[in-house]
Amino acid sequence: MKCSRCGKNAIKSVTTYVSDLGDVLVVVRNVPCYKCEECGEIMYTGEVALHIEKIVNTAKVLKQEVSIIDYKKQIA
Ligand SMILES: [Zn+2]
Q: What's 71's DSSP letter?
């Protein structure tokens, strides 16, 4: 995959996704991603982006102040 910011090569990696929704903070660990070797830009595939959206929406409904979710456990 190519970096969307600088066009250099992005390699498969794992990251922690954080979304601050104001009253709810959602942390998703072990998210598969592509990381640019040059500028460090993080990119997600469409499938992963959709899954993150689902996790965030679920967390919103739960209304916990901080939600820490393991991506791998959500997949299983
Ligand atoms: Zn880059």
A: H
By CB atoms closer than 10 A (0-12, 13-18, 19+), residue 30 is: middle
DSSP 17-29: EEEE-SS-EEEEE
Say whether pTM exceeds 0.85.
Answer: yes
Q: How many A from CA of 58 to the centre of ligand 1?
A: 31
Residues with CB under 5 A from ligand 1 (ion): 3, 5-6, 8, 36, 38-39, 41
Give 17-30 pLDDT, tens digit per residue: 999 999 999 999 99
> How many angstroms separate the alpha carbon of residue 64 from the centre of ligand 1?
34
